[in-house]
Amino acid sequence: MNGRQLSIVVGLLVLIGGGLFAYKVLVFEFPLTPQSTTETWRVDARITFLAGGGPAKVVVRLPQNDDVHTIVDQGFVSAGYGLTTQRTENNREAVFAIEQVAGEQTLYYRAVIHRSTQQRGPRPAPEPQVRTPTFESAELAAAQSLVGAIRRRSADPRTFAALLVAQLKEVKRGDEASLLLGNDHSIQRIASLAADLLQFAGIPARPVHGIVLRSEQRRAPFEHWLEFYADKAWHSYDPAAMNPEAPRDHLPWWRGKVPLVEIAGGTRLDLLVSVNQADELALSSALARGREIERRLVEYSAFGLPLHAQAVYRILLVVPVGVLLLVLLRNVVGIRTFGTFMPVLIALSFRQTDIVMGLALFCLVVALGLGVRLYFERLQLLVVPRLAAVVTVVIIIMSMTSVIGHKLDFEAGLSVALFPIVIMTMTIERLCIVWEEQGAREAMIRVLGSLFAAVLAYVVMNDAHIRHLVFVFPELLLVILAAIVALGRYTGYRLTELWRFRALAD
Amino acid sequence: MRWPGAKLWAHGVLGMNRRNAHYLLVHNARRLYPLVDDKVLSKELARKAGAQVPELFAVIEIQRQARELGRLVADRPEFVIKPAHGSQGKGIVVVTGRRKQLYRLADGTIADEAQLRFHVSNIIAGSYSLGGQPDKAIIEQRVIFDPMFEAVTYRGVPDIRIVVFLGVPVMAMIRFPTRQSRGRANLHQGAVGAGIDMATGRTLTAVLGNDIVSEHPDTGLAVAGIQIPQWSTLLELGARSYEMTGLGYQGIDIVFDKHAGPMILEFNARPGLNIQIANRAGLVPRLDLVERNREKLVRLADRVEFARSSFPGTSIASGEGRAAAYAGRSGTRSL
Fold first, then answer.
1. Do A493 and B118 touch (CB under 8 A)?
2. Does any domain span residue A99?
3. Domain B55-140 class?
4. Could you count the other beta carbons within 10 Å of the beta carbon of residue A155?
5. Nearest CA in chain A to B189
6. Which chain A residues are Cβ-neighbours of B130 within 8 angstroms?
7. Domain map (residue ranges) of chain B
8. Is residue A191 one of the residues assigned to a domain?
């Protein structure tokens, strides 16, 4: 009866987990292996200013979804500010407002942006209105002359834009372009003026400002380029490289002749934009505007979580794999460890330190801690104060390792702080008790068993394929659960028992 | 190639997983564990059932009472302090005598009252209990061990472990401490274990580690073929332990007191599997046999008889009557 129930439970779990997994693989073509080129980026903008004491209002332009970029997730951090978002002709804007504020203010905008790998033509857009700019007398004449000359040599808006930018870049002292540009020959100015002149010539156009999606950019500079409207769609033109297409790694952030941030009621505005490649798998097919059901599936998976939460789930989801391994090691192999799941936790901290360093640091801390613990034994402290003393000593050892390691330019020394302190303390305590009561041999067997299990768990839990599988297919946890439940009724011999009872095998 | 465990299985060896799944989980109700894990409770259970146990002098439950230790043992020249939730002999202090304010311990050292009080405090704080749970300290009668095994043993005291399944003693062994085991009766640590023929109460070949031995490594005397005295009484104690604790699968540890005879020292709800090595026999066939005859095994006498007739030992070495010879020697031993 019990056996049948067990089979049903295990069978159901495998069926559901495996079925979902197969469906996602076969129908949605979720990738089975991690892909090396990630196309997801994390963009952080920090806005700081000095508030004057009265009401303050900050308008920030935000990036938008376009042909290539999808904003997967975004968020604001703005304590105390009222936040509204609005759409203008060209831009999406966030408006932070507060009734009364003084002193240094910091606002954050964070976005996770996915870049599609697919090549697509520009999307049709509705015909925009041309806003003919007004030029003053001398400038008006220069503009008319410049536009007239280029129009005679161009066939379509594309060539018009190219010729115009070329003229503006190869500016000669005294010509029309130089008069229009003034002293500012920056790409930003060129893009802005080119947009004006295009509009002047009757072609809808706008300057575009954006950043380059490149890894590890702490203070990303803004790039500027140009967009014009032709054949019922917007086309971009990069004046810096004189290319008819803005480079693919450019993320358009906002458009038009407005600044990124406008502020009322504050001074000393400072803007810091940082970009980093998100540690994420390129689930391009699923994440980038897929079919509706596919999108839902992704939204309601770990991918729907904000990036930092995803990082947590990346670790959490892999824990059951380590736990299953430990069940195998303990109940099937018969390895003795300290604490049931202590090796999994140790393995988790190895993830932060890398394995060799982790092992060395672990042994160092445990050995030193054990020495101190044995000394405390002589002082005859009671249990709770003794444990507290060991915790304190463990922390002292850890910080000393970090400081000394840092002084020796030994970066890994810092990572010792990532070891779970309480786990280390309990390991030391238990090791000490086993040592005293069952001898050094048994203690060493357990230490080696624990470390072996930890290393094995580390290897398994750190395997890129396994991490990918459980994160992209969390339903596989049901299969793992089934395996654990099934192992719960494994009543055969443990491998070590074959050795233990070998005298009985003859 | 044959499955590596096939040979063990053919011999009916019980493995840890099977013991836990088929016997502990099924026959030992969780709520009964506290009864045997707490030695104050289990002592009371055994006493009520009429079994001999070391007499309880006092229980110290809170730290403040540790100060009264001197008063509690004022008129006791000998006593034992042990944790109520200890296991494997952890945290046991045996006081064998006193001179003025000083106590003489079994290992020959001298302790003053402050040291004993500290030990009691440690016990209460949970130094020796599972998971460091707060514990009670028991002060009880010191068992004057019957010197019958004196010659065979190196320090320490041999004890007899009987595994009892559904009230039927199924397997037994006697454990002799050795120099290597540092006076402890634990096979893991190098004690000699000798299986016992359930029918006669005579020891079978013994095991040291994984080697078969017929002599004690330290004393050189034969450990096989020794007749355990009062075997019927021991079998009966074993069978009755089922009614005492209600645990379907348990081990009981018995020692011989010089004056009172066999005493139950401890019940064990998770008895170890090494008894199989000492007996050179697997538990599974015996457990199966008991389970199949379960309905017939209700009365105490039937169960004892069943144990006697169903589980004879496989090898009996010579050396009859040795125990009797040792029994004549004088002197006492303690933990």
1. no
2. no
3. alpha beta
4. 7
5. A438
6. none
7. 55-140, 147-318
8. no
Rounded CA-CA distance B71/B68 in Å is 5
Interface contact A504-B8, CB threshold 8 A: yes
Please compute, for residue A216, the number of CA atoms within 13 A of its CA located in the half-sphere on the CB side. Answer: 0
Judge: B22–A382 Cβ closer than 8 Å, yes or no: no
Query: Domain for residue A448, yes or no?
Result: yes
Report how far apart, in Å, the C-alpha atoms of A41 and of each of A282, A306, B51, B101, B323 are.
11, 12, 76, 77, 83
| Strand (E) or helix (H) holding B117 | helix B113-125
Higher pLDDT, A224 or A77: A224
* Complete edge-to-edge strand list for the sheet that includes strand A56-62: A82-87, A92-98, A56-62, A261-264
Nearest residue, CB atoms, A492 vs list B15, B127, B211: B15
Closest Cβ–Cβ partner in A382, A497, A504 for B122: A382
What range does the domain containing A390 cover? 307-472
How many CB atoms neighbour CB A124 within 10 A?
Answer: 9
Q: What is the pLDDT of residue B182?
A: 67
B17, B19, B88, B181: best mutation site toward chain A, by most A Cβ within 10 Å? Answer: B17
**CATH number listed for the domain at residues B147-318:** 3.30.470.20
Summarize the confidence of residues A115-122 as an average pLDDT: 67
Which of chain B's residues have a Cβ under 8 Å away from the Cβ of A501?
A: 8, 13, 15, 273, 276-277
Q: How many domains does chain A have?
A: 1
CA–CA dist A213, A246 (Å, integer): 13
Q: State residue A299's pLDDT score.
A: 61
- Amino acid in the structure at residue A244: P
Residues of B in contact with A498 (CB under 8 A): 4-5, 8
Instruction: State the nearest Cα–Cα gap between A350 and chain B, in angstroms.
Output: 26
Is A497 in contact with B8 (Cβ distance < 8 A)?
yes
Query: B125 and chain A: CB distance < 8 Å anywhere?
Result: yes
Q: Is residue A400 part of a domain?
A: yes
Tell me, yes or no, if A498 comes closer than 8 A to chain B by beta carbon.
yes
Give the helix/strand (H/E) hosting A12.
helix A2-26
pLDDT at A288 over 60: no
**Dist CA B116 CA B93 (whole Å):** 9
DSSP-H helix ranges across A203-269: none
Residue A181 scores a pLDDT above 50: yes
Q: Which of A104-108, A306-310, A466-470 has the lowest mean pLDDT?
A: A306-310
- Average pLDDT for chain B: 83
Nearest Cα to A240, choosing from A272, A220, A202, A210?
A210
Assign 3-class secondary structure to A399-440: HHHHHHHHHCCCHHHHHHHHCCHHHHHHHHHHHHHHHHHHHH
* pLDDT tens-digit map of A35-79: 645 577 778 888 888 888 888 888 888 888 777 787 777 778 777
Check residues A214 and A5 and name the one with the higher pLDDT.
A5
Could you tell me the two tokens for B233? 């009484």
Q: Compute the mean pLDDT over every residue in chain A, rounded to the nearest whole number.
A: 79
